[in-house]
User: Fold this.
Amino acid sequence: MQIDLSDRTALVTGSTQGIGHAIAVGLARAGAWVAVNGRGAERVTEAVERVRTESGSDDVVPAVGDLATEEGAAAVVDAVPGVDILVNNLGIFGSAAPLEIDDAEWRRYFEVNVLSAIRLIRAYLPGMTDRGWGRVLNLASDSAVVIPAEMIH
Assistant:
């Protein structure tokens, strides 16, 4: 299947590796202008180059910012003021005994796995609505449905 995303702008969160990286490559191959996100400039720069090489597109740019923070989300929005396609791929996981997860760890998971997406949806959805076109994809693990006892957080 070939999708033409020419003249569309996409942001993929957590796209320096893994699934996010593969999504960024696919969107770039489809013709979208793609912003690659991660927390550190060096790692994002390396990922941008990999996406360019793998997709054959030069329309790939960095969007550095820690989306678990308001400041990091603002930095990403400053770097990429408007998008047509927002892929909220960022997420963390880890094993822990349920009764040993402290408040700080719960907050960290909530900031990364939930609030990071909400911050960007608030920032980008109004522009999508105004333009009459946009897509927001929120990705999650199957652990959201089939919850392992050691990963309830």
Notes: Residues 9-140 form a domain with the Rossmann fold fold (CATH 3.40.50.720). The CA atoms of residues 53 and 127 lie 30 Å apart. Strands lie at 9-12, 33-38, 60-64, 85-88, 135-138. The chain has one domain: 9-140.
